[in-house]
Specification:
By secondary structure, the protein is α/β, with parallel strands linked by helices. The chain has helices at residues 4-25, 39-43, 49-67, 94-105, 125-144, 170-181, 212-215; strands spanning 75-81, 84-91, 112-115, 118-119, 153-158, 161-168, 188-195, 247-248, 260-263.
Length: 265
Amino acid sequence: MTSTPALQRFALALSAGAVVAMSLGGCVPLAVGGAAVGAGMVATDRRSSGAQVDDQTIELRGASNIRGIANDNMNVTVTSFNRQVLLTGTVGNDADRARVEQVVGRVANVRTVYNEVIVGPATTFADRSNDTYITTKVKASLVDQNDIFANSFKVVTERGVVYLMGIATPREITRATDVTRGVEGVKKVVRIVEQVPEGTPATSGGTGTPAPAVNATPSSTPAPASSSGGVALPPMAPLPPANSAPVLSPGAAPAGGGAVTSPVR
C-alpha cells in the first residue's frame, strides 16, 4: 500500500502541475494573478491580511464575471494588489475590451482598474512559456537583493512587458525597476506601485487593518530617475484616492497618478 508521505508528495506534484497549467493555459476562468494566502505571506507583506484576502476574492470574482461574457477570442488575466486591479491579455475587438473593464470594475472593493488588454490575436504557447520564465527570473532577481523586500511587489509578465505591482518606498521602486530592467527578455517595465515614505515597515503585521504608513496619503515625491541601461525613468505619481475606481487605457496614467510606463530600451 502506498505510504502517506508518498501520497503527500504526489498531491504536491499534482498541485504544482496545476499551477503551471493555469499560468500557461490563458483560459479566462483560470486567469487569476494571486496565490493562496498563507501565514508567511501575511507576516511579510505591507498589505493587511484583509487586503490580501480581498485581492484573492477580486481576482476570482473578476475572472468569474469575465467568464460570463467570454468568447473564443477573449483571454484575459485578472491580477489584484491592495485592491487595485491589472487586466492583461487579449480580446478580439474594442467592444469586448470595454466590456471586460466594466464587469471587473463592478467587483466589490476594487479601487482602480488598469486596463492593459490588447485587441489582437491571443499569445502562443511559446509566448506564455517565455512570459512565465521571465516572471520567474524577475522574482528570483528581486529575492536575491539585500536592500529591497521582494514581497513588496507582485510580478506580472505579458508579451515580455513586466508589470510591477506593490507598495514600496521611492528607493525600493527605483531598485526593483533597475533589477527588472536588467533581466534578459524584458521589453518594458510598467510600475503600478503605491508609494509610501522611506522607512515604512516591510509588513503590516498581518492585522485586519493596513499599517499606518500604508493608510497615509501616498508620497508625491518622485522616484529618482534611473541611469541603469541608459534610459531615464519618468517620476512616480501618487495613486488616486482609495474611494475612486477609474478605468484606465493602456499606457495612460490618470490625472491623480498611477501606472507609469518605463521603456527599457
